[in-house]
Design brief:
The protein is α+β, with helices and mostly antiparallel strands. It has a single domain, classed as B-lactam Antibiotic, Isopenicillin N Synthase, Chain (Jelly Rolls, Sandwich), CATH 2.60.120.330. Helices cover 25% and strands 21% of the residues. It contains 6 helices and 14 strands.
């Protein structure tokens, strides 16, 4: 285990140029950092964690009543995902975690409705659950749109460069529960990279998140009050020609208690074609990745890693 630590970067009250330089340094390094002062009310964070604990305390049949639908929304039971796409480990055992998954809402009158991953969310029969979950989802959505121009500046692009790709973003809010584990158990979340653009993680006080350093060692990413852990996803790494790192990370909950976390995944629209940015290539650094439609990449990953997608259609 490495003694290296991830940088803590204040988002509020920092000018965009300074913030962009700090994010660029972090993402060129480990691909991870902490952000604080992001302008999200702490009561909204507390409320979503309380909602998650209440949901996961429900009897198993009540949760399975909203089992994951074909649009990747609903309840994911323990040990139903195996990270076959890990680039740093041969993973054969399923993740020891369960979750509630919320995505961008696509109603029946939306032209996108019915396409892969474009459909309705599922909600449990649990009074007072939906409002705090949607409030946190809105808060994260708003913050990510404030982050976009800073990321553009960090990549020497016009501030509005990413806007066209995020008019209808693909978003995921996952309310995760990790039961207590022993050191020799399978992972709560096996080593993996995130598929999309950027991930914003709120974690409770239990800890257990580790990030793989460029030298192959593992860095602890313990909870720091008032911060979110932020990391680069595969699509953003491809966009930057590998300048920014989509870094493997893992979770093992050996705290002795239940661990809860709320990762928010903010990705481009499903139809976005990701090609290496003009500012991240040149005569001595040609594109290392072919242009890729995000939706195709995402669905291929989901199909390989999640058991429910391998079952025959009803």
């Amino acid at each position: 285990m490495s003694d290296q630590t991830l940088p803590v970067i204040p988002f509020g009250n920092t000018d965009d140029a300074s913030l962009a330089r700090q994010l660029d340094a972090a993402f060129c390094g480990t691909g991870f950092c902490y952000l604080c002062d992001i302008g999200v009310d702490p009561t909204i964070v507390e409320a979503v964690f309380n909602a998650s604990r209440r949901f996961h305390a429900l009897p198993r049949p009540a949760k399975e009543a909203i089992a994951m639908n074909r649009f990747h929304r609903g309840y994911m039971a323990p040990k139903t995902s195996v990270i076959e796409t890990s680039t740093v480990a041969t993973v054969t055992q399923p993740n020891d975690s369960e979750s509630f998954m919320l995505m961008h809402e696509v109603t029946a009158n939306d032209p996108r409705h019915g396409r892969p991953l474009d459909g309705p969310n599922l909600w449990p029969e649990l009074a007072g659950f939906r409002a705090p979950v949607e409030a946190y989802d809105r808060a994260m959505h708003g913050f990510c749109h404030r982050l976009l121009p800073v990321l553009a500046v960090a990549l020497n692009l016009p501030q509005d460069w990413f806007a066209a790709f995020f008019q209808q973003p693909t978003t995921f809010l996952r309310l995760l529960h990790y039961p207590p584990q022993q050191p020799d158990d399978a992972f709560g979340s096996a080593p993996h990279t995130d598929y999309g653009f950027i991930t914003i993680l709120a974690q409770d006080e239990r800890g257990g998140l580790e990030v793989r350093g460029r030298d192959g060692s593992w860095l602890k990413a313990p909870p720091i009050p008032g911060t979110w852990v932020v990391n680069v996803g595969d699509m953003l790494a491809r966009w930057t020609n590998g300048r920014w790192q989509s870094t493997p990370h893992r979770v093992k909950n050996i705290s002795g208690g239940d661990r809860y976390s709320c990762p928010y995944f903010f990705d481009m629209s499903m139809d976005s074609v990701v090609a290496v940015l003009p500012t991240c290539q040149g005569p001595d650094d040609p594109p290392r990745f072919p242009a890729t439609r995000y939706g195709d990449y995402l669905i291929e990953r989901l199909d390989r890693n999640y058991a429910y997608r391998k079952q025959p259609a009803a």
